[in-house]
Amino acid sequence: LAQKYDPQKEAELRTWIESVTGKQIGPDFQKGLKDGVILCELMNKLQPNSVRKINRSAQNWHQLENLSNFIKAMVSYGMNPVDLFEANDLFESGNLTQVQVSLLALAGMAKTKGLQSGVDIGVKYSEKQQRNFDEAKMKAGQCVIGLQMGTNKCASQSGMTAYGTRRHLYDPKNQILPPMDHSTISLQMGTNKCASQVGMTAPGTRRHIYDAKMGTEKCDNSSMSLQMGSNQGANQSGQVFGLGRQIYDPKYCPQGSQGEVANAAGDQSGDPLGYHYYCEEEES
Which of 102, 122, 158, 214 shows the smallest number of beta carbons within 10 Å? Predict the structure, then answer.
């Protein structure tokens, strides 16, 4: 905090306070303002009757009372709480940097309120400028979007070709002729130099599946390996097409001669469920 103290600002504050109050601070800036008398007179010059009682006694509590009254007067003058200092900051030299900041802010507030002095010190506070627009102006502003939504001021179609225009792909390294117009694009858009149809068959051509391990020979280029599938283990053994199929269970087919089978088939009284048994023997 001591390193932030500016001696040049101290000289400017000394000149400003002395010009406003007409009193001399003395060689020591802190000791000249310690009792709070000059500061209270300064506030009465800026805002009359802001400090009604000024103690000129040498007792410590009288001097601290003057400093407290000066701080209260700065609050009523319109100073921000963050710009104020405490009484011990000046009385005990606890934080002279904050005291300097507060006095500079007070000079800026006085300049804002129109105080004319021979010393230009402090920064003038900004003033609120409130604008009132009618309803028609407010509605017109709703149709305008700010640049936060983007802009098309820098967009153009320079160098673009019409839709459907043929584009020529070229590569300068492969000794391909350079583009003749803007419809030619570079290899960044892709190339077809490495594409071919070698080994491809016409659509609908029959392909032969073969396996080199099983002795199946390769007929032509239309044959493919077992990676595409195989029919080596498939057969049609036992399959019939268009013939009726009989479903039976050997447990219900009687075993015996043809006469016994005929008698069992003719006797329906012993079949409570109404099943008819049929058994067919192969001819020798």
Answer: 158
- Domain membership flag for residue 269: no
Q: What's the structural domain count of the chain?
A: 1
Neighbours of 98 (CB within 10 A): 18
Domain span holding position 36:
7-113
What are 67-102's pLDDT values in tens digits?
999 999 999 998 888 889 998 889 888 889 999 999
CATH number at residue 101: 1.10.418.10
- Is 16 inside any structural domain? yes
Is residue 145 in some structural domain? Answer: no
Between CA 180 and CA 68 the distance in angstroms is 87
Can you give the pTM of this predicted structure? 0.46
